[in-house]
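[agent] plan:
  1. take the single chain provided in the ticket
  2. run structure prediction with default settings
  3. attach structure tokens to the ticket
  4. add a short note for the reviewer (M.T.)
[agent] executing step 1
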Amino acid sequence: MTPSTAMNSETPPKETSSINDAAGGLELPPSEDPALETSPEPPDKSEGLEMPPIDSDQSSTGARASDTIAYASWQEIEQQITLVNKLTVVDFWSLSCQPCLEEFPGLVRLNKELGDKVKCMSVDVDFDGRKSRPPESYEERIVNFLTSVGATFPTFISQTASDEIFAELELASIPAVFVYDAEGNLVKRFVDAGETAGFSYDEDVIPFVKSLAG
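[agent] step 2 finished; step 3 output follows
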């Protein structure tokens, strides 16, 4: 049925039919009522959010955790690291990793103390590839945790499955903290194995970063 046929019918059109009919494929004349105009679709988080500004003031007390979160693949996160142009500390963690949550405040302290010389970032690796638990399903709890510890630095919710990241980085487990130089080269890995087994921010990461930052 075309619009003209509908308008010439003896049966008056139902007032509530326009939106439903449009969804079913009926072409309707453009509405002159601005209130009925179609609003733009909200962005799809699964396609990724705009990256947090890498040159922003991380230690700003007015910053909110939700403003510093972005969705990204590991490849995109690596690209961000190379663009920082300063000493960078990246913490790999997840909500299900209790040691990660216990050590995370150390990154917050490092950021507050050396935020002018060091770029701090965190990468949440809760996503394990299951479609039933997409990356965005963890956002609310991630924001709540970051807010509770006062984190205002960039946090990436990984869109790459955790097993893929672990394989590429040769990680057996988390927590893990990687330190990169100003050129984006990896200079130190703190993992729970080998010489850094049982590492902590206070005893290991912060002193090492201070030695590089000068």
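[agent] step 4 note for reviewer: Residues 56-213 form a domain with the Glutaredoxin fold (CATH 3.40.30.10).
[agent] ticket updated
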